[in-house]
Queue: 2 jobs
Job 1
Amino acid sequence: MRLTFIGSGNVATHMAAAFKNAGHRIVQVYSPNMHNAALLAYHVGAAATNQLNEISSETDIFIISVKDDAIAQIAEALAVHQKLIVHTSGSTSLDVLLDYTNNAGVLYPLQTFSKTREVDFLTVPLCIEAANDSIYADIKELAAAVSNSIYSINSAGRKILHLAAVFACNFPNYLYGVARQLLAGYDIDFNLLRPLILETAQKVQQQLPASVQTGPAVRNDQTTMAAHLQMLEGQPHLQAMYTLLSQGIIKNNNGEHEDK
Amino acid sequence: MRLTFIGSGNVATHMAAAFKNAGHRIVQVYSPNMHNAALLAYHVGAAATNQLNEISSETDIFIISVKDDAIAQIAEALAVHQKLIVHTSGSTSLDVLLDYTNNAGVLYPLQTFSKTREVDFLTVPLCIEAANDSIYADIKELAAAVSNSIYSINSAGRKILHLAAVFACNFPNYLYGVARQLLAGYDIDFNLLRPLILETAQKVQQQLPASVQTGPAVRNDQTTMAAHLQMLEGQPHLQAMYTLLSQGIIKNNNGEHEDK
């Protein structure tokens, strides 16, 4: 299949490479920033452009991977080509494309991508939604070429997945950084925490989070929690966070949530 | 060396197994709960007791791995044997042992242990503190038999490490559970998030957390954050958490913290 990528960010970069490696042809990359368009285009053997009106009709699928609030405007511009248009956004409804074409779908990769880091795309869950069954089958075939993990998820499900991903990825990564800052104040190497961070994530690959919760809050160890809050004196933002997260763990443990 | 374990919880279980595998002899396991003492003793070929006054002097090191507030009382009871006494607690000062004996040290394993899960002990950072250089050398030799990652950390450093571990392990694990709950409400499989959780932890094994932060907050994407808060309507605890954690990410990104 011939694919055109609209966007050259983290998602577009990893997805374009995965599709090229699977034998598809990336014909063109568009980005308003010509340098970024050219860089990704170079890596996947495509043409580059920074002009919307230079995007070619000689393709099978347009894959839009840009900021959420730019998707509608791009879809409007591409509809004239009468090809399948797919976006990759977690928090954008399929309706945003359907406003301009019925030949539309979504291919949302549920992973955190950085340009500087390789990802095994075969393990990346790909969430598909489409305007009809025939388009769904086409997108599924495309997705199956690069991932072993394909899910049918509608726009409402995708939105909750995106929110859940913020809790499962963006917030934990922030907390890793808080831990690093705390150690930096005592000149202690962040390396000490790295095995712990990895093991914490590995544990929940087979087990449920609540069943492997450790630490003072799940033991309701009030002495240690009070000592920790005292160590955070002068950092009210971290104190508030410590209290709120600990309360959540205690509530879970008391069966007030259903995550058991 | 002959080792006696006081306690039979997660840390004692993993540590005793590691020392036994490294060729040391576990002579006795004490726990107030005889069933737990016998279970661990069986696994490491030791005798079991639930009576403090039945703990034998025929050992080289007592390793105390019990709840923090029980350490002092146990140390007092063991001091009569005039052997090296070591505790494994992150948040307990060495002084708690020094009140009863000068033959004392700390061996703190910085990892999250669950009885149901194997851990590669060679990668577990072991933090050592001792009453003097000679004891430090003895504990270091013992530690080096089971781990490649040995650090000299005093009581103040260990306390901050323990606090940092709460942020790097206990709180992220709680947030994994929140994500699972959010998906459960829509009947979406937690398996979709597992690769994301693992990749998030793997990313910071080589890189710094702030340099690989992704998500709406680091992009200062106010539209998505507002939509997420709306999806959390009726869950004020999660809304407060979302706001506090997002504010932290935004502040970091604006250079208001030093984690760059």
Note: Chain B touches chain A through 101 residues (CB under 8 Å).
Job 2
Amino acid sequence: MVGKSQIKFIKSLQLKKYRKLNGLFVAEGVKLVNELLQADLTPEGVYTTDPKLLIPQFSSFEVISESVLQKMSGLKTPNKVLAVFRIPESKQAVLEEWTLALDGVKDPGNLGTIIRLCDWFGIPQIICSEDTVDCYNPKVLQATMGSIARVKIVYTSLATLLKDSEHSAWGADMHGENIYDLRFPTSGILVMGNEAHGISDEVGALLAKKVSIPQVGPSTAESLNVATATAVLLSELRRKGS
Amino acid sequence: MVGKSQIKFIKSLQLKKYRKLNGLFVAEGVKLVNELLQADLTPEGVYTTDPKLLIPQFSSFEVISESVLQKMSGLKTPNKVLAVFRIPESKQAVLEEWTLALDGVKDPGNLGTIIRLCDWFGIPQIICSEDTVDCYNPKVLQATMGSIARVKIVYTSLATLLKDSEHSAWGADMHGENIYDLRFPTSGILVMGNEAHGISDEVGALLAKKVSIPQVGPSTAESLNVATATAVLLSELRRKGS
């Protein structure tokens, strides 16, 4: 039986403040929860309206009614499974080959989409500035489509990291060099900036190179969305064999 | 003075049903409204809490209070300007050079992001299947960041169009040929499918080629988001000079 106070507690984890306080986050939906159950994460509670939807090797769950799920859920249309997981201990950034760094990305959908991109393009780790949106935000988790289980996310001071790193950093910038004309080094850090303001001055000053995606035709479009720009840059990185 | 019935009418345009019925749509925010006022569109009403925010050449507006704007708006945090525009007469699809076609894209954020991508990469027209989300949906408009003013959108039967067209169609498909190894023809139609189901069987049967973006490393990621996949494919198209 799931009591009122437990429902209220789970609902509170929609907010970053309570996720931090308790070291827990909530994941919803059959696909996302099953991906996380197969990853190296500790489930603290798994709730479902239909146990057949969970991966067969997982047997420790509570069956709940649709109306209890509705009360626990942060979604308008809850999707049969909800689980509470422990937030992994925060890890040290370990730079190998290519790493993606995010400098103040604020939109949960963008961060989630970028995590999914890194999973696709084989980038094992994302380093986020402290002011980047929390990767355990429910909207981020939804947008990752489960890729959060396979990409390591580290929050730290980007400026400190870049200063101490022997890897050179390339940053996306509207006035940078044409990415199609460049060869990527065999290792490095690719930095993407905030949706409205781009890369901060502090981090910008530490870049070895600024790169851009050429615009075509007479458009007056000001920029690409940060997730789509990341898609193009990671595709270029992988196409060229780095 | 903006009366209660007018507020109610404007609010009703959040729904596709009332947009279709009245041939009108609502745009919100300083940037988006100013971009649309400069485009070839007919404004039926422009409301602002601060007239200095509108482009100077535009002088026919009503000044309203924050609380009236709040009542008219579909946004949680309304952004100072709201305008009602006439939906342009639906145009014939005219195929030149490269055209993007969307087969059942449902998510407003994805469609808006794809419109912004086409603006950036110089694709003047998007052809949408009838079941693709309405491009005058407020969430689509927000995600376009004003690019809706510069990209022509046509809704039609994709199957009929492809059958009648002399341009060959390439479609994004998980099992398609590696896009990095291919040369694009000088003209064509690039088809992107639905978020969950990809390209429909009917449209798939009319494709000249299926293309894919190679996955890197050991990930079990199932797919890329349709907007980020479109970003990579349009980048490849332009990089190769088509």
Note: The mean pLDDT of chain A is 93.
